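Interim report, section 4.2 (structural modelling).
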Amino acid sequence: MKNMIKSFASDNNAPVHESVIRAIAKANQGDAIGYGDDIYTLDAEQKFKELFGRDIAVYFVCTGTGANVSVLDHITRSYHAVICSDKAHMHQDECGAPEKYAGCKLLRLPSEDGKVHVDQMRPLMLSLGFPHHAQPKVISITQSTEMGRVYTIKEIEEIAAFANEFDLYLHMDGARLANAAASLKVSLADLTKYAGVDVLSFGGTKNGAMGAEAVVFFNQDLAKEYEYTRKQSMQLLSKMRYVSAQFSALLSNDLWLHNARHANEMAALLADKVKDIMGVEITQQVETNAVFAIVPPEAIEKLKRKYFFYMWDATRNEVRWMTAFNTTEEDIENFVEALKEAL
Ligand SMILES: Cc1ncc(COP(=O)(O)O)c(C=O)c1O
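Predicted structure of the assembly:
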């Protein structure tokens, strides 16, 4: 066990927001029918429909990996391929689960900022109709990306138009969709449904929940029979009310937005305070709640004695510092002081 003052490693290390805890406690009364046939799940579904419109199908799951993998499993056949960036969580951090459970090939495109672009994907379309090649069927984009960057609505629309041209589906891994929406100051629906996304993995956990993720289908044809895939994917929780109640809390009074905005602001503050420190080089534009920086290795070692954070790319001493809804300005001040001392 690490004895740490404060984690700048991931928003996964943040606690659960107290409104979410209160909502869980409120749901913890008496009996409720299992597997989602309860008033809490109905309420959370309603809240999703208020945000995205009535013509969606939403399903709650427990992990982001489960959301991604079950979606891919549902919308592909074994000879299909999924196009994603080489930074994609589904490629780097899901232990091969998409390959194992969805059983399809991931076609990774090189990317510095975690985004994929239409001009990179066009050559892959030459495989269509050629039986020796896995057939591209899905484009999966991550919003915000693993490098803390955001796709603009226009960029998503371009990818969606391309997907449409070649009869591909557009999946969005929105584990940090809230941070992207807060950064761009646009609605969740504009950034997804109206930009042409077919199916979304909607993240709650990094935004203040504790194991609450959702799969949202905007393309309702694709949603057909997903409930069976969810069960086969081991993502149908029996005591569903405790997941649903978390979403009701996050989606009430714009809590999702306040949390994401605050996390983003803290990352911006951190970047602002470290950007002129000699020896520190910020490597990605800070658009959401992550700061990537190259720091001398001796300083990283010293700082790690006090703070927990990840080395991102050891080949060039690049670290990732991530903020969350509970990061305070004081946390940032202290961290920057410790960094200066370490240097
Ligand atoms: C971009 C992205 N997608 C998906 C996930 C999956 O989350 P989980 O750990 O809940 O499976 C994560 C988790 O860090 C993530 O960063």
